[in-house]
Every structure is written in C-alpha cells, then in structure tokens.
Amino acid sequence: MNLSNFSAKVSMQNIQREFSYDNVVMLTFTMNYPKVVLSNNKKAQRKMNSHIYTQNNDFYRYIINTLYPQAVMEYKYDLENDFPFRMYDAVMQYEVTYNADCYLSTYYDRYEFTGGAHGNTIRSSDTWSLKTGNERLLWNMFQPNVNYRYLLIEEILKQTDQQMKENPGIYFDNYQTLIVQYFNPKSFYLTEGGLAIYYQQYEIAPYATGIVSFTIPYATLGWMPTCSK
Predict the structure, then answer these.
(1) Which CATH code of 3.30.565.40, 3.30.420.10, 3.30.390.30, 3.30.450.20 fits the domain covering 9-129?
(2) What is the pLDDT of residues 152-190, one digit of tens each?
(3) What is the pLDDT of residue 3?
(4) Per-residue CA distances from 124 to 106, 121, 186, 188, 199 (Å)
(5) What is the Cα–Cα distance from 81 to 83, expressed in whole angstroms?
(6) What is the Cα–Cα distance from 64 to 171, expressed in whole angstroms?
(7) Is the pLDDT assigned to residue 116 strictly greater than 90?
C-alpha cells in the first residue's frame, strides 16, 4: 500500500425525517454524515465508521427520547393557551476538513431550534490516523517537551487582538481571559492551512459572531500531517 499521500474515500450520506403528533409536524430532523471507505485497511475503516455511527445514534436517541417529547409538550401547551406552535428542528451536519497524508479530520455541528429567538449549535470534532483508525489527540501534534497549550493560546490571542482592532465588538470585552478559560484540547481539527482551534457559541463572543475558529499554520507548530507520523 502506497502511503505517500494516503487518503480515504468519503461519501456523504443523508437522512431526513419528520416527527408528527396529532397530524401536526412537531420536529424535522436532518443528518448529513460521512461514510469512510479504506479499500486497503478495513480494520481502520470499521473503527472510524463505528465511531461516526455511535455519534449519530446518540443524537437520534436524544431526539426520540428528549427533543420530540419536549416538542409535543410545547405543542399541547400552545394549543391550550391559543399560542402559535413553532416547529422544532434538529440538524447534524458533518464537514470533512482534511483527508490526505494518512489523516482524516472532521467536525460536526449539532443544531437545535426549540422555538426560542434562535437556534443553538454545538460543534465537536475528530481526527484519525488512516493507518490505524485511532483518534489523534492534540498533544500528538507536538514534541513531548512543548507546552502546546501555551503556544496555541498565544497564537490565538495574537489573532483576536488584531481582529478586535479591525472589528471592535466581535468578541466579549474580556475575551483574553475567556480564551484561556475555555480553551479545550478536544476542540480542534486539521485543515490544509494548519491546525484549527475553535470555541463554542457564547464562550468568547456574542451569538452573532457564532462558533469561532482560529487556524495556526503548521510551520508555527513545527509539525504537519505526514504518513510517517
């Protein structure tokens, strides 16, 4: 098997469904997720697809057991009080951000609208070695003696300081403290341009700013994805 620029074949799958009560649609559900094919490494393929399936199944169970009953309760309350019912919506959307050099990196956004002023999105991510099918952790991208947390936060602060000069108000006033407080070593994915670190809605910025991601070039990290690592 030639590993010089080994990548996976990825096809996006789509599931759409409506959940009704009393002949009224309570909730719409959409899921777009990747199916990974590694013709020369079925073991790694099974690991990654099993992981994705578990994530999808967990979200589906949450919709069935929590979100749908909640929508029905809301519908009954609105009906009794002559309020308009606002249909719930749930979306799970995956994005493949890197697929080369024996690495596959993805993130997925879980969006929910439950009748409020706006919906809410939570992002999660995974990075795998295509040689083993094992997940790669953030510290794997650095030498053992490197304080990767300090290095990444310093780079993020440089970017946010410049962005605040160009667009004041894009982050909360105490964004520097919040960047340190909410730094999560699980919140990363690979891109062509470098390592992306992201923060959830409201962690460092107003809702209008959304989920914020910062890309740190591989040259700054002293590491880049290759099949030899």
Answers:
(1) 3.30.565.40
(2) 999 999 999 999 999 999 999 999 999 999 999 999 999
(3) 56
(4) 9, 10, 8, 8, 10
(5) 6
(6) 36
(7) no
Q: How many CA atoms lie less than 13 Å away from 180 in the CB half-sphere?
A: 5
Contact 93, 109 (CB under 8 A): yes
121 phi and psi angles, rounded to 5 deg? -125, 135
Task: Write down the pTM of the prediction.
Answer: 0.94
The CATH number assigned to the domain with range 138-221 reads 3.90.640.20
Quick check: 181 and 118 in contact, CB under 8 A? no
**C-alpha pair distances (Å), 209 with each of 4, 73, 137, 142:** 39, 32, 27, 30
Task: Concatenate the DSSP letters of all residues of the chain into one string.
Answer: ---TT---EEEEEEEEEEEEETTEEEEEEEEEEEEEE-TT-HHHHHHHHHHHHHHHHHHHHHIIIIIHHHHHHHHHHHHHTTPPP--EEEEEEEEEEEEETTEEEEEEEEEEE-SSSS-EEEEEEEEEETTT-PBPPGGGGS-TT--HHHHHHHHHHHHHHHHHHHSTTSS-TTHHHHHHHT--TTSEEE-SSEEEEEE-TTTSS-GGG-SEEEEEEHHHHT----TT-
Average pLDDT of the segment spanning 91-120: 95
Report the distance separating Cα 220 and Cα 148, nearest Å: 11
- Position 90, amino acid: A
Average pLDDT, rounded, for the chain = 95
How many angstroms separate the CA atoms of 32 and 27, rounded?
17
